């Protein structure tokens, strides 16, 4: 049985230095491993100096790498405030996966604005999307002995949910392809930790939620 | 082996548009590459720089775009294929060379990559560089995807060589920084770099008499290029519907998604233009004659739209043509599938479900910021301490432009590379206020030197501060002529900034380390007094970019700084309101606010501890 997917748009958002672009690339490489059409879009340059970093991966039959407002099927947020900021990209069928680990914007750190209570942020998102999955990515990464691989944990979670028609093996191969030798072992553990978490979350979501994003043909 | 040098594979490679261009050029036998970095084009020269030696080709970081083009065109005139790459505004810098190179032409393939930045992700304007093709008569290709970027690079070299003209490869951010599968071919090994030069001054030295002749030659070449464009497979029609869409670049992708999502794909016929200059007017007319009405969907200016209207007029076609206009295709900023849906829906009267878009919640902003321990912050703090709000601060292009943000607010004027120096001359002539201009080291080499020489020779009175962090930081730490750190560690700079400044005729100059607050303040005060005597003075504020230095020297952090809560430092908050390092944060306990330092962010630069007694170092193991 060969899977064929309709357009599946994944929007990534995080803060400069969190490894957003590497995470995006892992999804792309995994898709390529399975011969799925994929395009990714990144923004480099000035925005990366401590600002918001956004990228996208578009799988399946979509032609454009840009995700317009309301058109994200999945949002992967590496930071809860950025998960909320990505709300205009979402629609009622979107699945948002967010790290619960906060990074204070400078405006907050110096007391010029207030970082909202995380539960307030989640309440902004949860009723407006099909599902919100919260992941303590730093904790999962450090218990896997891979402190600096929270970004790979998040990709593990995405892989584990089964939202993408891509196997775990493909993500592992992608990781081996992209990372230097010395980083592979730790990151495989981070991927595994995320994957186990994602599998449990995926089972809770059920077929209906996930099925509305993807379809399977023989 | 560098990943862009691998041999042909069955599995496509996942390449960024910029990497696809590099691979295409390598397969085309490029032997000379030169560029000044500029987002979104930088990864082209960076990749070439990484693999140049291994591939046996000559790669250089040029001091600016004009220089890169002149280096490359000379090689191409000697029969050596060359490539230069630049961002859109870089082509403005190179325009003087470009416009007359279009007359002279080349003997071997020469490709000029120009990367536009619609939506100004990392630029000062969103000019449409396609008009440079029209202005110069140079052919231009416009890819939509990384795969096309690769193929069109091959094609650009072929066209360049066939018509003995440089060829433009025009991209946009979403092509340069799009990653997608690319099926690669074979690279032929490079034997050597040697070329051949035949003296031919009456074709190569463009004095007026030669220029007149070459101008006519160029006009004679134009119809041949047009014929090539008319028959190019890069320009193609798909679909059979009654409605027409003319498009190019990344917009072509948005159009496909839009009509598919709207479920109206079968009603459309699309003309995709990949060889977009000369614009194939006959092909466009043929396309227009087969549709009831047509919409031109392109980013920025109505470049193809004008061609469509021209084609219709020449061929006397009664077809209705739409493009830029109210409710149709916006002029400003990038397009996306949603904007394209709106334009198509409105123009063709196709109803479309208007999705409800969630509003952006009120959230704290996360603007980009100078890094913790950035020496630019220290320099701005020092200058503001001495010159205050009274002075006018022309700025320039680089990381340090972020000095515009609070709490520093140290940028008053900026238009382009080098404008900091030259505009200071204008400001100081008509204002009775101190003028202190800022320019980065790389930007000074790129475009600041003529401004400084001009200021000296015309007797202007201002202080120029060269922010020397030893690298081209903003675009990814590329080298420049004054760098003192190379891949292996410390190196002798090729050009000394101090000597260069003196060579420009500046007599009053000093180098400070902005991380040494007291010493630096003393020098700056002296320079302030010196301003009254007239003339141009220059302070070189020298301290390496910590990100870059750590990458090269792999220094381990030995100390961090901490605030002493018992000294109730939170009362003054000067460290926040005057310095504003991102390592600071405020925490309240029992109703009292304390300023604390995030030890993992602090890099131990020590500047804050020199301006506040409550901050002290802590050794870390």
What's the quick description here?
The complex is a heterodimer of chains A (218) and B (621). With 218 residues, chain A is an alpha/beta fold.
Write the layout of secondary structure elements.
The complex is a heterodimer of chains A (218) and B (621).
Chain A: E1 8-15, H1 20-33, E2 38-42, E3 52-59, E4 74-77, H2 80-85, E5 95-99, H3 106-109, H4 118-125, E6 131-135, H5 137-143, H6 150-161, H7 168-178, H8 181-211
Parallel strand pairs in A: 1-4, 4-5, 5-6
Antiparallel strand pairs in A: 1-3, 2-3
Chain B: E1 13-16, H1 17-27, E2 32-35, H2 42-55, E3 58-61, H3 65-77, E4 82-87, H4 88-104, E5 110-116, H5 130-136, E6 140-141, H6 146-163, E7 167-172, H7 173-176, E8 178-182, H8 201-204, H9 208-230, E9 235-239, E10 243-247, H10 251-261, E11 268-273, E12 275-277, H11 281-289, E13 293-297, H12 303-314, E14 320-322, H13 337-348, H14 375-387, H15 419-430, E15 436-440, H16 441-457, E16 462-468, E17 485-486, E18 489-490, H17 497-503, E19 508-512, H18 517-531, E20 536-542, H19 546-553, E21 559-563, H20 574-579, E22 584-589, E23 592-597, H21 607-611, E24 615-619
Parallel strand pairs in B: 2-3, 2-4, 4-5, 5-7, 6-7, 10-11, 10-13, 13-14, 15-16, 16-20, 19-20
Antiparallel strand pairs in B: 1-8, 6-12, 9-11, 17-18, 21-24, 22-23
């Amino acid at each position: 049985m060969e899977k064929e997917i309709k357009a599946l748009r994944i929007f990534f958002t995080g803060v400069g230095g969190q490894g957003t672009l590497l995470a995006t690339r892992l999804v792309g490489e995994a898709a390529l491993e399975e011969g799925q059409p994929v395009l990714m879009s990144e923004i480099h340059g000035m925005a990366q100096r401590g600002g918001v970093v956004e990228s996208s991966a578009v799988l399946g039959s979509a032609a454009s790498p840009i995700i317009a407002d309301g058109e994200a099927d999945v949002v992967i947020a590496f930071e809860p405030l950025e998960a909320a900021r990505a709300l205009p990209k979402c629609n009622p069928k979107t699945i948002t996966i967010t790290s619960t680990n906060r990074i204070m914007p400078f405006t907050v750190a110096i007391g010029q604005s207030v970082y909202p209570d995380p539960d307030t942020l989640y309440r902004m998102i949860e009723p407006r999307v099909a599902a919100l999955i919260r992941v303590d990515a730093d904790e999962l990464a450090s218990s896997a002995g891979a402190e600096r691989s929270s970004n790979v944990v998040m990709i593990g979670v995405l892989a584990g949910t089964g939202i993408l028609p891509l196997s775990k093996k493909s993500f592992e191969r992608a990781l081996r392809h992209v990372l230097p030798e010395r980083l592979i072992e730790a990151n495989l553990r981070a991927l595994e930790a995320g994957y186990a978490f994602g599998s449990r979350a995926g089972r809770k979501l059920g077929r209906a939620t996930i099925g509305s994003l993807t379809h399977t043909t023989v | 082996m560098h990943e862009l040098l691998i041999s042909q594979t069955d599995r496509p490679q996942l390449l960024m548009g910029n990497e696809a261009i590099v691979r295409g050029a390598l397969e085309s036998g490029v032997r000379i590459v030169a560029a000044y970095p500029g987002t979104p084009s930088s990864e082209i020269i960076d990749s070439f720089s990484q693999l140049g030696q291994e591939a046996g080709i000559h790669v250089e970081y040029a001091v600016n775009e004009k220089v890169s083009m002149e280096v490359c065109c000379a090689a191409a005139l000697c029969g050596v294929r060359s490539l230069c790459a630049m961002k859109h505004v870089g082509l403005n810098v190179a325009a003087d060379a470009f416009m007359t190179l279009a007359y002279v032409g080349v003997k071997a393939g020469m490709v000029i990559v120009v990367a536009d930045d619609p939506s100004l992700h990392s630029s000062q304007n969103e000019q449409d560089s396609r008009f440079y093709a029209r202005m110069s008569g140079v052919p231009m290709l416009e890819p939509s995807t990384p795969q096309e970027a690769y193929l069109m690079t091959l094609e650009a070299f072929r066209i360049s060589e066939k018509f003995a003209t440089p060829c433009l490869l025009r991209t946009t951010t979403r092509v340069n920084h799009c990653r997608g599968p690319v099926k690669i071919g074979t690279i032929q090994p490079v034997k050597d770099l040697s070329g051949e030069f035949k003296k031919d001054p009456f074709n190569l030295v463009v004095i007026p008499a030669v220029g007149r002749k070459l101008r006519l030659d160029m006009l004679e070449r134009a119809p041949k290029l047009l014929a090539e464009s008319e028959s190019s497979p890069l320009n193609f029609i798909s679909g059979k519907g009654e409605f027409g869409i003319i498009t190019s670049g990344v917009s072509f992708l948005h159009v496909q998604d839009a009509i598919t999502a709207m479920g109206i794909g079968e009603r459309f016929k699309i003309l995709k233009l990949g060889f977009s200059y000369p614009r194939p007017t006959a092909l466009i007319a043929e396309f227009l004659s087969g549709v009831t009405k047509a919409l031109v969907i392109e980013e920025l200016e109505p470049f193809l739209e004008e061609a469509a209207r021209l084609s219709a007029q020449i061929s006397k076609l009664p077809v209705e043509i739409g493009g830029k206009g109210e409710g149709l295709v916006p002029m400003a900023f990038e397009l996306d599938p949603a904007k394209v849906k709106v334009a198509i829906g409105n123009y063709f009267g196709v109803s479309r479900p208007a999705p409800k878009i969630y509003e952006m919640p009120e959230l704290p902003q996360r603007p980009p910021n100078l890094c913790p321990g950035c020496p630019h912050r220290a320099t701005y703090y020092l200058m503001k301490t001495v010159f205050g709000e009274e002075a006018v601060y022309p700025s320039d292009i680089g990381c340090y432009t972020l000095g515009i943000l609070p709490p520093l607010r140290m940028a008053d004027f900026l238009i382009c590379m080098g404008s900091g120096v030259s505009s200071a001359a204008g400001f100081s002539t008509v204002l009775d206020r101190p003028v202190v201009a800022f320019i980065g080291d790389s930007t000074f080499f790129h475009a600041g030197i003529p401004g400084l020489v001009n200021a000296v020779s015309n007797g202007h009175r201002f202080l120029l501060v060269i922010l020397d962090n030893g690298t081209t930081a903003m675009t990814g730490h590329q080298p420049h002529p004054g760098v003192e750190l190379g891949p292996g560690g410390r190196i002798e700079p090729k050009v000394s900034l101090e000597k260069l400044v003196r060579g420009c005729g500046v007599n009053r100059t000093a180098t400070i380390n902005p991380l040494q607050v007291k010493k630096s303040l003393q020098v700056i005060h002296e320079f302030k007094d010196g301003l009254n005597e007239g003339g141009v003075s220059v302070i070189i504020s020298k301290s390496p970019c910590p990100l870059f230095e750590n990458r090269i020297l792999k220094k381990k952090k030995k100390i961090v700084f901490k605030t002493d809560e018992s000294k109730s430092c939170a009362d003054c908050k000067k460290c926040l309101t005057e310095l504003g390092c991102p390592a600071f944060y405020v925490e309240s306990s029992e109703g009292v606010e304390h300023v604390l330092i995030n030890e993992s962010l602090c890099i131990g630069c020590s500047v804050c501890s020199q301006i506040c007694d409550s901050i002290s170092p802590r050794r870390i193991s």
